[in-house]
Amino acid sequence: MRMVDIIHKKRNGQTLSTAEWDYVIQAYTADQLPDYQMAALLMAIYFQEINGSETADLTLAMAKSGRMLDLSQIEGIKVDKHSTGGVADTTTLILAPLVAAAGVPVAKMSGRGLGFTGGTIDKLESIPGFRTGLTEAEFIHTVKAHGIAVMGQTADIAPADGKIYALRDVTATIESIPLIASSIMSKKIAAGADRILLDVKVGSGAFMQNLDDAIRLAKEMVRIGRLVGRQTKAVITSMDQPLGMAVGNSLEVIEAIEVLRGGHTGSALYHVCLTLGSHLLTMANVATDEVTARQRLAESLADGSALRKFEEFVIAQGGNGEVVRDFSLLPQPRARVTVQATKAGVIQAISTADIGLCATLLGAGREHKGQQIDLAAGLMMACRIGDKVEVGQPLAELFAANSDNFAEVSSRLLGAISIGPKPVQTGPLVYGLVDENGYQAK
């Protein structure tokens, strides 16, 4: 095969064969194709797009470009959850032990934060001693012994995706739904779980800014899952404001533990976790319907079994389980300041991406891969859309190693929160579900 012929076909809108997709991915992963040819193909895909079977072929080829985990030694239906990214999206820390406490094995591979989106691995590593760099044998053993394990993505899992994503980032081809879908699903398929639940975010703090694009992305990923033999569902949830109140690594661990203790039962974070968890329980066949599953999860929070599973999980991966009782064991900020409202009114909107940027500027997030972060830094929101506020009322508290950029961050945060005179109606927290039958609005 010749890459120039493949580029020519796709430039003209023709369908590539499975063999052609395999050739492209294998050759590029092995450094046998120059970046300029792959960039040309990516641009052709961006403009011409690719059909469902092509997306599945591309996804499988990327999944097979490295090691594929075999979880067959673990009894039961193994589940995995993936979020498309957001701010204060602390669901994995709550959801994984919650679902595991219900008897469903959770085998999850997660990533680090980049830009304004947080990363599960960074959050877990704020717990003293917690290890995310597990070997495959350690990962499987931990799931078998404790029903739950979370490990960082390794370089040999879907390595083609890493190379292609880096090229997309510098060739203006990020915003291609087939390429986004294949990037996400290649890693999920390589991670080996039997059932995949996707949390597709939409709103000011999400990659998908409007509902139609979020539904389209969800449908594409669910279709890929079905074509490769993995039961896959996608829940579309709002990211028009931070999901939780804590934005930052150790701060989000604290909020997750508080939910696992049975608190924050009226919060958006709590409700999204129970919604996602109920789907995972039905997908794993341990509950017959979502109502029953949700009741079971709520009981696990109320009776403490979910919290005990979290502590067991932390200890199993080398962490200090005492964090569930003593938050002072977590990294502590040396400086803090409260940002107050400068006018009275009603919170009209919150630019979630700007809130995430504020946390990044405080040291909680990365602007580029490999950047060191401050695990104690971040902010704690004190308002949500629709809240009434008075002059001088706290809007958020900032945490950092020092106060050097508190003035800049405070100004940005005030600009991210719109206050007006009129009451405002908030949108839905959960928009709907995409499965093999298409999209069903909630």
From TrEMBL:
GO terms for biological process: pyrimidine nucleobase metabolic process; pyrimidine nucleoside metabolic process. Pfam families: Glycos_trans_3N, Glycos_transf_3, PYNP_C. GO terms for molecular function: 1,4-alpha-oligoglucan phosphorylase activity; thymidine phosphorylase activity. Keywords: Glycosyltransferase, Transferase. The keyword Nucleotide-binding does not apply. It comes from the Bacteria. One of its GO terms (cellular component) is cytosol. The keyword Glycosyltransferase applies. Residues 346-420 form the Pyrimidine nucleoside phosphorylase C-terminal domain. SUPFAM superfamilies: Nucleoside phosphorylase/phosphoribosyltransferase catalytic domain, Nucleoside phosphorylase/phosphoribosyltransferase N-terminal domain, Pyrimidine nucleoside phosphorylase C-terminal domain. Its EC number is 2.4.2.2. It catalyses: uridine + phosphate = alpha-D-ribose 1-phosphate + uracil; 2'-deoxyuridine + phosphate = 2-deoxy-alpha-D-ribose 1-phosphate + uracil; thymidine + phosphate = 2-deoxy-alpha-D-ribose 1-phosphate + thymine. Homodimer. Belongs to the thymidine/pyrimidine-nucleoside phosphorylase family. Catalyzes phosphorolysis of the pyrimidine nucleosides uridine, thymidine and 2'-deoxyuridine with the formation of the corresponding pyrimidine base and ribose-1-phosphate. This is Pyrimidine-nucleoside phosphorylase. It comes from Anaerosporomusa subterranea.
